[in-house]
Amino acid sequence: MPFLRFKGFAKQDIEPISQILIEEFSKFAEVAPEKVKLELLPVEQLTNSPLSVEIMMFPREQKQHDAIASAIHGILKKQGFLHIHIFFILLSPTLYYKEGLPLQVGMAK
Question: What is the pLDDT of residue 89?
Answer without folding.
Answer: 98
